[in-house]
Amino acid sequence: MSFLVIMRIVGLLLMMFSLTMVPPIVISLIFEDATWDAFVIGLGISFTTGALLYWPTRHARRELRTRDGFLITVMFWSVLGLFGSLPLMLAADPSLSFTDAVFESFSGLTTTGATILTGIDLLPESVLFYRQQLQWLGGMGIVVLAVAILPTLGIGGMQLYRTEIPGPLKDSKLTPRITETAKALWYIYAALTLTCFLAYWLAGMSWFDAIGHSFSTVAIGGFSTHDASIGYFDSAAIELICVFFMVISSLSFGLHFAVWREKRLRHYLVDPEFRFFIIFLALLVSITIATLFISGTYDDTLGLRHGLFEAVSIATTTGFGVADFTVWPGVLPFMLFIGAFVGACSGSAGGGMKVIRILLILKQGLREIHRLIHPNAVFSVKVGKMRISSGVAEAVWGFFSAYMLLFVLMLLILLASGLDQVTAWSAVGSALNNLGPGLGGVAAHYGEMPDLAKWTLVVAMMFGRLEIFTILVLFTPAFWRR
User: Fold this and answer.
1) In percent, how much of the chain has pLDDT > 90?
2) Which residues does K(+) bind (predicted)?
């Protein structure tokens, strides 16, 4: 393992990330909110640190191996989250503690959307923009961006790409060259963001709100520039636009690329993961709306609007809100929260365990039932027309096992910190699924949690964003052997 090359790459990436603090400086000067100095200092510290890592190792050149990619990815996301917290600590408003600033920074970059802030409407515009920008950058992944725009790194980009793209089938490439693949992903991501911005703006949002919410919508993030989230606008048109882009952004970007390249919408309809995802969403939305209607929680129109929006928002792990779903009747709050465990499609910016994994687990369960009926028969697991290899099937079960073990471990830590069962359970589930809103004491915000719980959730967000094994592999002795 070449640590000099790794330091050089992390230094370059940190310098690149420091430049993302320029837009908030511009926003601060436009709105005269007097917080530009916090971003200038944050930029200076981040760029200088990156330069100190890069300059002594600038001549280090070596092809990266897969495990180098794992280490770079985890190091960079950790470093990025820490340095991303600097403006939040340095700004006079909100003037967060180190723990709270790190929590907010990691929540943004991992597109979790859990916040410790209250009074969001009163925050400086530059801080609001910065939070939204963090989610947009984290949505597709800074590492993939680096592979797309820094081919002069002199590394094997596939090692970074495979550790960053979510899903069980990470070796699938859209184009023969990995740099072109990363660029294709970002072109689609940017195009969706621009389209979403224009739709929000035409529907009545200000240009500032439209930019901010397009960032967090396409990133499946959930941060908002208002305490009331999307509910602040009280607009059916804006809610429908948001629902549409939440669903679109929850689909595989590889699938979007195939449709764009071949100009055939049929690719959506024949994709098994897409079909399962849409059916799952339709059932969840139908049950939610029906329950709200039968219970008389809202009138017909409002029940339809709120039921549709909240079901899609939670199931896609976006986390926007137009109503407090935690006080809805019966099993609805828990049902919607469980829906977030399924999450978005693989190859998207969304969280959860990913639709394809749940589909594979269900198909393998059905296969075992068929084996009980026909013990001597040989059954294979297929997704569409593709037969799933035993290696992929084992990886899915391995992921599920590791997920549950981590969930229980972190749940015990939160319970030990003094939280009640509902709050602890939903907080861990929300962080690990990169969802944001929770139940109980974290239904509104996470500001009142003890520091031990916040740091535990920061780790959970990282595990959720990098899909567990990218981090766990670093704790195995075999990883560090030559």
Assistant:
1) 60
2) 111-112, 220-221, 317-318, 434-435
Provide DSSP, 13-63: HHHHHHGGGHHHHHHHHHHT-S-HHHHHHHHHHHHHHHHHHHGGGTT---P
Nearest CA-CA partner of 136 in 114, 164, 110, 162: 110
Residue 236: both structure tokens together: 């059916």
Secondary structure element (H or E) that encloses residue 420, with its range: none
Q: In this predicted model, what pLDDT tens digit does every residue of 177-221 receive, in sequence order?
A: 666 777 788 888 999 999 999 999 999 999 999 999 999 999 999
Which tokens is 144 given? Answer: 């993939």
Distances (CA, A) of 295 to 231, 291, 323, 346: 22, 6, 16, 35
Answer yes or no: is 317 a known binding residue: yes
What is the model's pLDDT at position 173? 53
Check the annotation: does 279 bind a ligand: no
369 is in an annotated binding site: no
> Could you tell me where the beta strands, DSSP code E, fall in 274-349?
none
Which secondary structure element, helix H or strand E, spans residue 65, and what is its range?
A: none
Task: Check the annotation: does 220 bind a ligand.
Answer: yes
The closest alpha carbon to 108, from 223, 234, 237, belongs to 223
Per-residue pLDDT tens over the stretch 126-171? 999 999 999 999 987 755 655 544 444 443 444 444 554 555 544 4
Q: Is 152 annotated as a binding residue?
A: no
User: Cα–Cα distance between 19 and 22 in angstroms, integer?
Assistant: 6
111 is in an annotated binding site: yes
Vertex 460: Cα angle to 454 and 463 (nearest 5): 150
Are the C-beta atoms of 49 and 83 separated by less than 8 Å? Answer: yes
Q: What is the pLDDT of residue 152?
A: 40
